[in-house]
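Q: Sequence in, structure out?
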Amino acid sequence: MAHAQISVEAYGGSEKEDFNQFEQLFRGYLGVAAIPNAQQANFLQLHNALRFYQNLTNAIRGDVNGSLAALRGHFCNPQLQEILVLKLEQERFDPKRDTPENFLMNLQKKTRRAYPTPDLPAVAPIDPAAVDRETAQRQERIDAVADHRNEQTKRLFVKAMPGWLRSKLMWNNRPQRQSKTCAA
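A: Exactly. Output:
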């Protein structure tokens, strides 16, 4: 069987790389290329993460789901998220190097990594009413995380701006006062 000519960028394991995005692209690649389950683990492309991967047992390396779970456990741990949050707090805008738009896009990307959307377990389809209730609760939780992430992005964007630009941004976003003149 011929496999599709699709490539996924190799995962290096650095803090600048997003493992969840890599995994999503990799799983999509496996689906599009129609690679048999027995051969899927052979297509994992790793750079610096290869050292960790080579220390896994043969049984785990032979199973793509086990391999991805082990990599996720190593590269998506809570300590890494704490480090990402701390680094996010230290972000500063440099008007000589960057534009506010580019800075905001990079800040949003980093905020998504520091405050990821939770990977919630699937709902067992036992009772249709229970499934609807569970689905609504899952969506509420995902929406709450997204709202929190957006608030953090706004707060960090304003915090990272130099004083002169911050005052300009805040001046343009302040509520307009209504005029108290009466028309006779």
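The first helix runs from residue 19 to 33.
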